[in-house]
Structure formats: structure tokens, C-alpha cells
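Inverse folding, one chain.
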């Protein structure tokens, strides 16, 4: 589908009564874009292992052992919380802007997760301390609570509950969808939720995910064009570069314990150089514009 037609469809659905509900139905039953397939669950497992490895390698393992993990923007399948439970984490919170999980998604995620980690040749089996039990006929939210996992959606009322008690916050490919002014508030709330020495870990895709064409096609559009014709309540992209994430994190009070940016390849630069970069991006260097992915670990002093 032409990407312009796709974003126009998001705009139209956003304006219709019941448009959000229909969009979710389509994602789940028609396009299958939120279905927790083995490939999608395995991808999330690998990200969770990256978080776990970083904490262990940088002296923050105790943040998880006996601490509280908060998954910000938990999304459609609780893969990383299931992984952390299996690694021995006893208390977790799943925060989302609106209720997205349901019984079917939790059961499908659990089945895919157990299939992957139960494989005898899975390379991380020695780390497993336990496995989540079958869900059987229990309500999915009761089942998660039995695993020490509390689901909070919408997350607004949940912030006071966790204030200064969380040891680790993770957010996986979520921050790119949040408008910058709202992200500032999210970072402030996450900072408040963490106790002293707590760590905020996140992965962020910096590439073009919506504007058709190649990895950098989204950089050709001025902010006013992007906000008017592309972004909608159903789907938005903030197009922030890595340096902006660094700035917002430090403004919120974090220090950067890790900040890894995947650079552009020579082939990427050839592609980038072919597009007219919008004025709002011209303050960035060629390297900053070409960067494709960000992993950061931000620490609360």
C-alpha cells in the first residue's frame, strides 16, 4: 500500500467514532500485526537479554535481584516481563497509555515464550531459575499478578504507587512514537519512579518506519507538514535524533551510563545524500542524521 494512503487512513480512523477500536480489531484479526508470533517474541527475548547482560556487565545486577522492574510501554505481549520472571525477578509493573493486553494475547505470548526457552539448544537455558506455569482457566490479569506482575493501563494512576521504589525501567521500541513534549513528562515520571542508583534502559529505532522509500525519507518533511499530514492519534513518530534523547534524559536529571548509537554505513550515506533534508534537521551532523538505532542506559544519581 502507498504510505500516503496508509497515513491518510490513520487520520480518517482517528476522526471516526470507534475508529480506535476498529484499528485494534484490524491489527489483531485482519493484518495480524500484533500477533505474538515466535519471531516477534524471540526478538523481544533478545532485547531483554541485552538489558540483562548490560546490568550484569556494568555492576547493576543487584538492581534486579530483589528489586522492582517497570516495563514502560509494555505493548501487545509481555515477553520481557516473562523473561525477567524466569530469571528470578519477583516484582514487576507493566505500564501502558491504554489497555492493550487481553487473554488471547497473553496466552499466545506465553505459548511462544515457553516454546523458545524450552528448546534444549536455547543458549541461555542455564540462566533460567524457573518457568511461568500454564495459565489454564485463570483470568489473564490474575495470572500475571500471581507471577508478581501488575498491569497498569492507563498508567497515570500508577506513578504514585511506584515512586522512588523501582530499580530498573525498560522501554523497548516505544519512545519513538511519543511526541517530544509528552516524552519530557514521561522521562520526569520515570526519574521519580526510580530509586537512587536506578537505571532506565531503552532501545529506539531512528530509521524511517512510515514514510515509504528508504531509511531516511522521513527527514525530508518539515515539522508542520509531518504533524499535519502524517501524525495522528492512532500512529505518530517523533523523528527525534539520538542527541535529542540525550538532551531530554539529562534535563530530567539522569546521567548517561551507556549510550550506543548504530552508525550509518557508507551505503546509507549515499542514500541520505540524495534527499533534501528539511530545515528542522539541518542543525544535525551527517553522522547524527544517518544513525539508525539507539540503546541507552540512564542512571538516577
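Residues assigned per position:
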Amino acid at each position: 500500500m502507498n504510505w500516503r494512503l496508509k497515513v491518510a487512513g490513520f487520520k480518517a480512523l482517528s476522526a471516526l467514532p470507534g475508529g480506535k477500536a476498529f484499528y485494534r480489531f484490524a491489527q489483531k484479526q485482519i493484518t495480524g500485526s500484533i500477533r505474538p508470533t515466535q519471531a516477534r517474541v524471540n526478538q523481544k527475548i533478545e532485547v531483554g537479554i541485552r538489558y540483562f547482560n548490560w546490568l550484569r556487565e556494568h555492576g547493576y545486577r543487584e538492581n534486579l535481584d530483589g528489586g522492582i522492574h517497570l516495563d514502560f510501554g509494555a505493548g501487545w505481549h509481555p515477553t520481557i516481563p516473562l523473561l525477567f520472571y524466569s530469571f528470578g525477578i519477583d516484582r514487576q509493573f507493566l505500564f501502558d497509555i491504554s489497555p492493550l493486553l487481553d487473554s488471547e494475547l497473553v496466552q499466545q505470548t506465553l505459548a511462544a515464550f515457553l516454546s523458545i526457552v524450552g528448546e534444549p539448544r536455547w543458549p541461555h537455558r542455564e540462566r533460567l531459575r524457573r518457568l511461568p506455569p500454564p495459565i489454564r482457566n485463570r483470568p489473564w490479569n490474575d495470572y500475571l499478578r500471581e507471577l508478581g506482575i501488575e498491569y497498569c493501563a492507563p498508567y497515570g494512576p500508577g506513578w504514585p504507587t511506584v515512586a522512588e521504589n523501582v530499580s530498573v525501567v525498560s522501554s523497548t521500541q516505544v519512545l519513538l512514537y511519543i511526541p517530544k513534549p509528552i516524552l519530557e513528562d514521561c522521562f520526569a515520571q520515570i526519574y521519580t519512579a526510580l530509586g537512587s542508583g536506578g537505571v532506565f534502559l531503552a532501545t529506539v529505532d531512528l530509521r524511517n518506519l512510515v514514510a515509504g522509500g528508504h531509511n531516511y525519507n522521513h527527514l525530508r518533511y518539515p515539522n508542520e507538514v509531518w504533524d499535519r499530514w502524517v501524525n495522528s492519534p492512532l500512529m505518530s513518530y517523533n523523528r527525534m535524533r539520538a542527541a535529542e534523547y540525550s538532551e531530554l534524559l539529562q534535563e530530567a536529571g539522569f546521567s548517561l551510563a551507556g549510550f550506543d548509537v548504530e552508525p550509518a554505513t557508507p551505503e546509507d550515506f549515499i542514500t541520505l545524500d540524495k534527499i533534501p533534508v528539511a530545515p528542522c534537521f539541518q542543525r544535525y551532523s551527517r553522522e547524527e542524521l544517518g544513525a539508525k538505532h539507539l540503546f541507552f542506559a540512564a542512571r538516577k544519581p
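The longest helix spans residues 38-57. The mean pLDDT is 92.
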